[in-house]
Amino acid sequence: MEALQIEKGWGESPGRGSGAFRWNWSSPIVLSPHNPRTVFFGANYLFKTTDRGDSWYLISPDLSKNEYRKTIKESGGLTPDHNPGGGAEFFGTIITIAQSPVDSEVIWAGTDDGNVQITRDGGKTWSNVVDRITDLPHHDLWVSRIEASHFVRGRAYVSIDGHRSADFRPWIFKTEDFGQTWTKITSNIPSHHPIYVIKEDRINENLLFCGSEFALFYSIDQGSSWHRFNQNLPTVAVHDLVIHPRDPDIIIGTHGRGIWIRDDISGLQQMTQEISDSVGHLFENEIATRWLSIDPMGRGGTFAFIGENPTKNAVINYYLHPVVAGEESVTIKITDVTGNNTRSYTIEKPKPGIAKLIWDMRFDPPPPPPAEEGESERPRRGGRRRSGPPAGPGTYRVELTAMEEVFTGIIEVRQDPMLPPPFKVPN
């Protein structure tokens, strides 16, 4: 690890008449999606480096409101008596930065005193477009997050947090024209859920996530409607979200509950209104791997106390419409290319929504041989549970049957990539 005294590399200061730099308690540092050597750092001015932090230069004027009553300093330091909100914290600072993944010249910045700033020429000129957000009660609330779209140059999402001003309503807005017009998209998010973060999926432009004081929500229609992300996430303040750039995972940064990772959101990423209206659906699934596990002691040792890993088994994602909730069961069947080996699952009292089936990559065991005359057919106690043959590397057919409708898909299995071919799948 290299230590860097960054004070020496800040470049030209803004001048004596404009006042000192102001840094938020959580000053934003953002890596450019276009160049890993380019980083943005927010004070009340926006800094940029193109050499990984060896030198910095300004690309903006003071982007805050720079209100005297919020930035006053006495006796050379912070004074809680004069600083609204108290505590050792500056106000009038940048708290969120977003460079457009589509156009490197488009950069957004939001401040803790309500400004939404945008440049379309890499920082040469800036425009404050917060006054264009007409649905806000006033324009000095925290701009908690700006998310520049991965798909459309002029599209961006802005979340506003008013809980410091005793306004706990959720505020999320979308623009398609660089902030000239805004649409409120909080729709059915409950009141008293101030929003801290908004994220657009990297694969599906209609899929959004937002984190509030109490929960994580998702939308499959760009915010027209929202659903609470239940799963096993507790009631918790969600302060940050990251969509993994390689894997279909979402990383959730919480206040007081650590980091949560939701593995495999590929079902959500593939969700469309057409799928939502159908009785059922089988999604495209991640390739499953038959990992070779070697455990000579027969136990996991301390691994159980270190952290929980994703399942080693195959994961089949499927969707069921709410009309299926009244059914007794649905079935999922996995078949090899010969049709001789199958694995059948019956899901009793199915719940609507996106769900996962965990397949251990084995087929149903063959039926036991018929008992000879005079021999008891009652199974003997003890012994190992009968298991079917393993599924080797290949592609398998998956069938979901719900309300007499059949939906088909595939699941692919590969061998452990660390093993030299050919390697026989162990029984």
- Strand-residue proportion: 25-35%
| Unreliable runs | 1-13, 75-81
Could you tell me how far the N terminus lies from the C terminus, measured between alpha carbons in angstroms? 46 Å
Radius of gyration over all CA atoms, rounded: 27 Å
The quaternary organization reads as single chain
Number of helices: 4
When the domains are counted, the total is: 2
Helix content: under 10%
Average predicted local confidence, pLDDT: 87
Tertiary shape: elongated
Total DSSP E strands: 27
The CATH H-level superfamily of the largest domain is YVTN repeat-like/Quinoprotein amine dehydrogenase
Helices and strands in order:
Layout: E1 29-31, E2 39-42, E3 46-49, E4 57-58, H1 68-71, E5 94-99, E6 107-111, E7 116-119, E8 127-128, E9 142-148, E10 156-161, E11 171-175, E12 183-184, E13 195-200, E14 208-212, E15 216-219, E16 227-228, E17 238-243, E18 250-254, E19 259-262, H2 266-270, H3 273-277, E20 280-282, E21 288-290, H4 303-306, E22 314-320, E23 329-335, E24 342-348, E25 353-359, E26 394-402, E27 405-415
Parallel strand pairs: 21-27
Antiparallel strand pairs: 1-2, 2-3, 3-4, 5-6, 6-7, 7-8, 9-10, 10-11, 11-12, 13-14, 14-15, 15-16, 17-18, 18-19, 20-22, 22-25, 23-24, 23-26, 26-27
